[in-house]
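RETRY 2/3 - previous attempt timed out on the joint model. Re-submitting the same 686-residue input unchanged.
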Amino acid sequence: MRILIVEDDLEAAAYMAKGLRESGYAVDHVADGKEALYRIAAETHDAMVVDRMLPGVDGLTIIKTMRAAGNKTPVLILSALGDVDDRVKGLKAGGDDYLTKPYAFSELQARLEALLRRGGSEAAETSLRVADLELDLVSRTAARSGRPIELKPKEFLLLEYLMRHAGHVVTRTMLLENVWDYSFDPQTNVIDVHISRLRHKIDRDFDKPLLHTIRGAGYTIRDPR
Amino acid sequence: MIPGRIVRSTAFRLAFLYMALFGTSVLVLLGFIYHSTAGFMDRQTDETINAEVRGLTEQYSQQGLSGLVRAIESRVARDKNGGGLYLLTDWKFSPLAGNLREWPDFDATQDGWVDTGLREADGERVFARLKYFLLPGNHHLLVGRDVAERNTVEDLIMDALVWGLVITVAMGGLGAVLMTRGMLGRLDVINRASREIMRGDLTRRIPAKGTGDEFDQLTGNLNDMLDRISGLMDGVRHVSDNIAHDLRGPLNRIRTRLELALPENGADSANRKVLERTIADIDEVLGAFHAILTISQAEAGSRREEFAVLDLARLAEDVAELYEPLAEDKGLRLCVNLSPGVAVSGNRHLLSQALANLVDNAIKYTPSGGEVGVELTSGPDGPELAVRDSGPGVPPEHRQAVLERFHRLESSRNAPGSGLGLSLVAAVAKLHGATLVLADAQPGLRVSLAFPPVEQAAPIV
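RETRY 2/3 succeeded.
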């Protein structure tokens, strides 16, 4: 997987590139907008991380230009501007996800992985399965080893999101944005409490836990095999 | 009925003053007209009577009573329809000569002039102006004129003058109301737009009529001033965005550096713990920094673009649902009491964050076994959203101070938090034109946000 980083903060880009390389990605880096447009036209990448404020051509212009040219590479926008309005502008310009600075590297990695996995098959799915846990998206019911699990509507959405990203880290911010549609981080970590309740419901009577907390990063649901 | 708002307005008072001045001028003018028409006729009548009296006096002094009788009779014969009235009586008021049937009943005046109704010799009733004399030998003499026609003309003149005054005052009053309405209408447009701008909608401009009058000039000046303020605010916002970008960069690098320096998962070394704690501290600093920026944006009114008509009950329900497990884990009862279908115009994310801060605080400061309530009511003055708890509350003398940035009560110094939660609530309340009140919940604290009513119906999101 080849990632293009477009970031004028050289030190931040260096750390991002180092972390991504350690995670097994090939990384290219450019520091200004014009150079980025040349690279995008000349090479192919699996995903891009684009800073919004750049010298010369700004991030949104880069994305609009590449989308106009028919380039569908997934783009994660980085920005110090965290308003919902700014997010909307970023996503309308053609960005696929938006991450506000300062970000945790684990957050960036989790979002990039989610972008790289994003396929067109989600809409057609009627059920999700991880090990012996099954989620019926039509009847909105859950069962593990055939035994029904009572879930509240929000718990169902939470589990659905985790199962859609099974095997990958999902951050608290991703859950807040995608399950609750909140762009703010509550002072107290309420998400932990929701996860622990969900864990209690799906793992309590079984030997092999499916829902795990990844310390300092987020949560993941995975097949223990 | 003129609305009180118009009567109280300066424009109306000014118009009314002009109307009074104009009315007085018209009154003076009409008085002059009356004086020079009806007054002239009065003086002419008196002059004629005086001339008659002088003639008769001459006859009387030359030829005595018999001469006077002759003179009166010749005048009566000569002046059949001329309007002259004469009566000479003896001391018992028995007529001796003249064209009046009897001595009229009147109170004698000092100057001898009398206005009275009487009967002529032919029985016709007339209204007359008379001069009365007592002649030597107790003879009584009346000389006068029939003034019925003069009275009719005077009445007509008086009627015309009164109606003229009434019409003038009415037209002036109507003009004052219309002028005031027009002026108030223009002022209303300016005031309405100003209020919306003060509420934080800095993109709003005051519409001009295009006539180039003083109001248009005032509107133009206000709009130019707003453009300048907007430009300055954009500049400030741009600077703060740059500061955010430039300051968050180094912090972000520190965080990433620490994150990458964390030993692999599972290695639960002392080093890892130190790094994790440091990252948590940096996150706290960054969280506070983010909160300050959010507060600044809310205070500057720059988040109004995201306003929509919201279902406040649904918004409150979502926040309550998010916090419900946390309250339960702490052994608190979370009572949610929401009137359905209450709409408010606002920014969903900021209102959710403000409410989350209030619920978070209530849960944080209420001891186990207590109660936290989220309430939404709707009255004629608009919706009220409130969060109450059964915790220690906030003393009245600190209720204003806790809304300031970084202010923390001595009793909560050791609790987690940055002291920015309520500041954000206050800024969000201000952005939404809502009144924020901290009150005693007996026991505990009740924080309420009273929103203005939604002015126009729009799709609820």
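Chain A has a mean pLDDT of 86. Closing ticket.
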